[in-house]
Every structure is written in C-alpha cells, then in structure tokens.
C-alpha cells in the first residue's frame, strides 16, 4: 500500500508541474529513489496506469534513477557513497556510519508534450 500513496503524490506533483508549463500530455516521469525509501518502480508504474486514467499523465512511463547511499563516518568524519551490500567506511573500514541520504523519493523531471 506504500506505493499507492507515493504514486498519488507523484501524480499530483507531475500534473501540477505539467499544468504550470502548459503541457497537455506527460510522456515520462523521472524519479530519484533512495535505496531505503522502499519504493519499487514497477509498483509505481502499475498504480500510475490506474490512477492516471483520464488525466494528462495517462500512459506515462516511470523512469526511476536509483540514488547511491550517502553516509558520514563517525570515526574519521569522511563522507562517501557506498553500496548496500558493503556497508563500511571506504576510508577507514569503520561500521559506525551516519546515514545522510536514502529515503528520498522525488520527481526529478518530466517529459511532456
Ligand atoms: Zn571512516
């Protein structure tokens, strides 16, 4: 159900942005998705297909860009981007990391007519 609420807000943001630009049709919605936001792009697409019926976003394609995980090391203070499978500071190997990003899910840009 998480994706349904997310898709609703993505759709609202996109429709508003399209209206402001005087666009009549949204072809694609580009999203930035953090590794911990828990949103699966395929689910967003499925919900969008239903929710966008009869709006300028009908038939729009979801293009998701997965963001890297940014952390700050509590031991050496270095900020870095790490992968989800190897969660340790690249500089000193510490596991005491502070998460700087990861939960965002934002509309990056639109492709409109
Ligand atoms: Zn470190």
Structural summary, described in words:
- The protein is of the alpha+beta class and 113 residues long.
- It has a domain at 2-68 and 102-112: 2-Layer Sandwich (hypothetical protein PF0899 fold).
- Helices cover 27% and strands 30% of the residues.
- It is built from 2 helices and 6 strands.
- It has helices spanning 2-20, 41-51; strands at 26-33, 61-66, 69-73, 79-82, 97-99, 105-112.
- The chain has a 3-stranded mixed beta sheet with strand order 2-1-6, covered by helices on one side.
- Helix 1 (2-20) packs across helix 2 (41-51).
- The protein is elongated, with a radius of gyration of 17 Å.
- It starts with a helix and ends with a strand.
- The model has no long low-confidence stretch (mean pLDDT 93).
- Zinc ion (ZN) binds at residues 73, 75-76, 78, 89, 91-92, 94.
Query: Can you list the ligands bound to this structure?
Result: zinc ion
Helices and strands: which structural class? alpha+beta
- Sheet with the most strands? 3 strands, mixed
Strand content: 25-35%
What is the rounded distance between the termini?
A: 31 Å
Low-pLDDT runs of 5+ residues are none
CATH architecture of the domain at 2-68 and 102-112: 2-Layer Sandwich
Write out the strand line-up for the largest beta sheet, numbering strands in chain order. Answer: 2-1-6
């Amino acid at each position: 159900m998480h994706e349904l609420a997310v898709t609703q807000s993505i759709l609202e943001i996109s429709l508003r942005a399209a209206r402001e630009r005087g666009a009549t049709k949204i072809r694609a919605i580009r999203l930035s998705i953090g590794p911990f936001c828990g949103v699966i792009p395929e689910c967003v697409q499925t919900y969008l297909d239903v929710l966008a019926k009869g709006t300028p976003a009908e038939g729009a394609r979801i293009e998701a860009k997965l963001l890297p995980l940014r952390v700050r090391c509590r031991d050496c203070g270095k900020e870095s981007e790490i992968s989800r499978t190897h969660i340790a500071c690249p500089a000193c190997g510490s596991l005491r990391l502070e998460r700087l990003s990861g939960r965002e899910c934002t509309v990056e840009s639109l492709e409109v007519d």
